# Entry
Amino acid sequence: MAITRRQFIKRGGLVTAGTLLGPQLFGNSLMRQAYAALEDNDRYFVVIFLDGGNDGQNTVIPADNAGGLLTAYNDARTNLRITPGELTNSLIGLDPISGTQLGIHPGFNVPGDFFDNGAGEGGLKALYDAGNVAVIQGCGYPEYSLSHEEARVIWQTGVPLGTPAGTGWIGRHLAAQYGGNQIPAVTIDDSIVGEFRQTGTSILAVRDLDSFEFPFDGAYPDDIGAKRAAFNAINLAAVTGAQPSAVFIGNTGNATIDSAEAYQSLSGLYNTDRAIFRQRYADVGRSVSNDLREVARVIYGVEQGVANVNARFFQLSNGGYDTHSDQGGADTNGQQYSLHAELGGALKVFFDDLTDMGIANKVTVLVWSEFSRRVPQNDNGTDHGSQGPMLIIGGGVNGGVYGNHPNINDAALDNEGNTEYTQNANSFRATDFRDVYGTILQHWVNLPQGTVQALLPLDSTPDAISDPAHYWRTANFDLGFV
Amino acid sequence: MADGNALTLQHAKHLLRRTGFGASQAEAAAFLASHATRGDAANALLSFKPAGFKPGGRYFEDIHDKWIKYMLKVKSPLQEKLVLFWHDHFATGISKVLDAKMMAVQNKLLRVNCKGNFKTFVKAINVDPAMMEYLDTPRNHDEIPNENYARELQELFTLGVKDSAGFDNYVQADVAQIARAFTGWDYDKTAYLRDYDHDFAVDYPTRGPKVIFQSTGGFGGGGRSFAANGEGEAEISTVVDIIFDHEDSQGKNTVARRTARRLIEYFANPSPSLAYIDAVVAASGFDTNFELSGLLHQIFVHDDFYLTAVAPVGAGTPKSVRWPIDYVVTSLRLLKMKLKGKELYVDGGSYNRVLNQLSNMGQTVFDPPSVFGWDWEAAWVSSSTMLARYGFARDLTAARGGGGSSFRPSKLMSLDLTDPNDILAAATDVLGITGDLSLSEQSTLVDYLTDGGAFPSLDLNDYDVRNVKLHGLFALLMQTPAYQLQ
# Structure
């Protein structure tokens, strides 16, 4: 039975409270002084969540036995095994210390219209070959959790130990930087996601710009103009009225309707100007390609200077990664194959779109999952695991392989069959996910190192302080991929 | 003296609104007819016997939705307003506790104690499994005591960091000592003490005697010993007894002042005067008896409670921003509408389930953002949270599927009214915001109804006129700044 974080902690002994990130962090004057706006750098940041726990072991795979990893891999994976022969067309760089040749899952090497037209080359592999993909191995954190919910919250808040932070790792930056009437971030979802959670500023949650509109009664469109005028006038009256609490509500109301209408117009603008790419997303024809298209629509709107559209941060997710059974290996009908094909295909179209807009260098995408999967497989799938790869994609990214392949030798696995998190300087040192976040905040969002450290506090429980080899006690926000 | 003050209609509506989930003009009038004075009204509102309701279900969504359903039907809404307050005060989140049944048990505990004895309440929370899990009590061992609960018990639940004059109420040594009291406590279905994990003074001589409040609290340099009733199980109870005896830098009972302040901030206004706080504590004797219902009674009859019960035109006292839960439950109750289906969705507009709508408004019950609970007032207001409220208002008035989950204005007001001013008055009466709109807002809405004067009278019995203009009016009213406030 999978160990819960609570059980792990009980067995591990004594853990005292980690930091509590309360509202006081937003008021920190140091933070307010120290930020540098993503806006000033004219950049965008997109987060893609692979929901369910993507099997990293079959995503970044040993293609030769230079470090003995292929033997270990073959021991662990039988019918899910992806052989060196099957990796010939999707080889990437070498594992830095062991020198093992690595490959990515062949599903990442298919074109966007794979589902209609079959095999070809393209997808994430094409982006990698252009130098635009950083594959970061072994990403995780101490005292890993096997619970979807708990692990997801940890990745979203950036606080693995102690009482969960109530705010997201990006949210803390957004709240410090933007006011309540601005909309710096958009999530393609039904509600605000954990990464963006905070109370200082506004995040738009929208599924589909085509159908997004300020909420008027759609059954009577002829009356919408009258409703809008009344709404506007009432909010203006509140702003100039005598009730103090109504003043800020009135301000927010009008800012909201202006933004909502601006966002609604983005769909039409994009469809007119970029019809060819609209078709290419449709050729992939999956929810992840639809969602990336929505992001592209907003980015295009910002680039075109549409009034009241200023979002710089985006989030979307793709589901289906919890492959306890029927995961599939290299066979094109497999579940994981299909997921990688649609994600890779969608990302290729997205970056072709951005390149055509002339702004591929201004956009960076981060792909993460709440955990990887158990190294030894079960019948035909895998159970929940620990460290796994993160992908960073963008025109401004320094492509290649970063971090170390986790130690998948059977003797090195823990009781659960999972790789261990270590910060010892050896060939299997894990990459703490907060170092990846921090590198993005420092080198992409351009925040000073001190500000970034305040947003991502080090592990500071007594256990962590006494055992730096197994906790995140030294930050490295210069991983170099951006 | 305050008890005997006559209630006015405006005050009756204000009282019902603040202590419940909305009140139409008619409900306020009926209430006034049977409760002529503030004292009568407060007695009636506080006379309920707390129900033993516990939301059932295996998963978070189940207990969430069960609680919402209960709030929609409950006969004494003050009970649920109190449970919500205590849920924010003793904030506990399922994202760490990870067990819906434990959260449900706590929810019932909050309900049963909501207007009882506060000291008993805090002692019960000490050993509530969900709270223990949330603040790490089971991980508090004698070898290295975990200070999380010991700190929040003082900082958030009872004393507060500083008193009204700005002096610290406790020091780090108090946190460390109180943590010792809680070492070894764990839970199965209920809490129990593992002696072998408990810090007994004889085993840890370097930690000093089990004494707290040597530099604050008015106990003198010697402080007070929480081992006075014996070591072991009794300590956590003795700690609470001592905390409740703590006096601030002005010699007033610290817990009483702080608890009164928080309740006033929730029920009355966001920045209460010290005079208001001290008056209600003195009048109720809360600083000796710690009975919440007596304290609440005094809060509800005091003049300051009614400071914001005036029309917004010309009023300078900031009103409170309604919690998302309040906005949703009040709207459904006033419009006499039900939610539909197993997933509790509104049967119109976005057809989104109420759990998602509330989350978009910034409030997911059973999952506050942190142990500090939710941020109130202006923090509820942002473009995205307001959009969620506006969308909810639209959804309610676009619900045309028939039956109890659709918007049926015929059940709320007369459809034979034709004068737009009368129609507006009737609608604001239904929503309980009579007198809250400025003249300018009123004339805007009359203009809306008449399409700028083109249709000076309306036939609400006409299907289209009613569905366009009357449904539209109710949506606009629920989207006004005035309706967000109380």
